Amino acid sequence: MVERDGVTWTAMIQGYALNGHLDQALKLFQEMDLEGVVPDEATYSITFTSILTACSHAGEVPKGYLTLAKEIHASVLASQFWQNRYLANLLVEMYGKCGNLESASSVFATIDRDVVSWNSVVQGFAQHGQGRVALELFHEMILNAVAPQTRTCLSVLLACGHLGLLERSREYFLSMQGDHGLAPAVEHYRSMVDGLGRSGKVAEAESLIQTMPFLPDSVAWLTLLSACRTHSSGERGAIAAEKAFESDKRAASQYVLLSSLLNTRPAAKG
């Protein structure tokens, strides 16, 4: 191939990024610049989303992710797209995903924010152990008359759960429907089950699962089972394991958790 245009470069970068080869994607991005091919909005957008997809599929931040994010960020700042809100939102999400919260906040502070911007920054802080900052940002979001989405609420519940703020998580959970007209999805119920379990309220967690407005999945039951292991609730843990298996017969993790529960608990508590 003698001559490669922006479309060709973008396709190659996307292919490497989606397959987790971020070092090679970065190399191609740099080579594109050296060959004088100027990235357009589509190039930036596709590259960003490819990296985000690769990161989410990996389950953890792949090696080279932050380096590539910074390289593309610098390129955007030097281009005509530095004020493009769509690209800025992707930058906030990218930095939040890899835990570079300082850079995420820096970009967030300079852009014309919409609900996507707020979602990304709240989620970034919630997922990386900065729950109190996430809650502060959520309150600021509400004060700025930006209506939260289900994704925002999930981040808030996650933050509360990790901080042990059970009562506040209840309030936020109830306010989804009451204040914002958002019906909690299964992910929100799971988050509440996790928060209750972390607080040792395994009976209440089980009750919440049983009263869900939809059929509980294996993840919900496994979340309860994990809490039962932590708090030595043997009988309830056995029930949770059975329900998890009924929901997904391919899952094996319930047996590992149940075995751990039965082998380590000093005495079963209902």
Order of helices and strands: HHHHHHHHHHHHHHH
Number of strands: 0
- N-to-C terminal Cα separation, in Å? 69 Å
Instruction: Please give the share of residues in helix.
Output: over 70%
Name of the top-level CATH class of the largest domain: Mainly Alpha
Strand content is under 5%
Main pleated sheet: none
Q: Which term fits the overall shape?
A: globular
Low-confidence stretches: 266-270
The tally of domains stands at: 3
Task: Provide mean pLDDT, rounded.
Answer: 84
**Content-based structural category:** mainly alpha
Q: How does CATH name the architecture of the largest domain?
A: Alpha Horseshoe
CATH topology of the largest domain: Serine Threonine Protein Phosphatase 5, Tetratricopeptide repeat
Instruction: Tally the helices.
Output: 15
Work out the radius of gyration: 22 Å
PPR repeats: 5-39, 114-148
InterPro entries: PPR_At4g14850-like_plant (IPR046960), PPR_rpt (IPR002885), TPR-like_helical_dom_sf (IPR011990)
Keywords: Repeat
GO molecular function: RNA binding
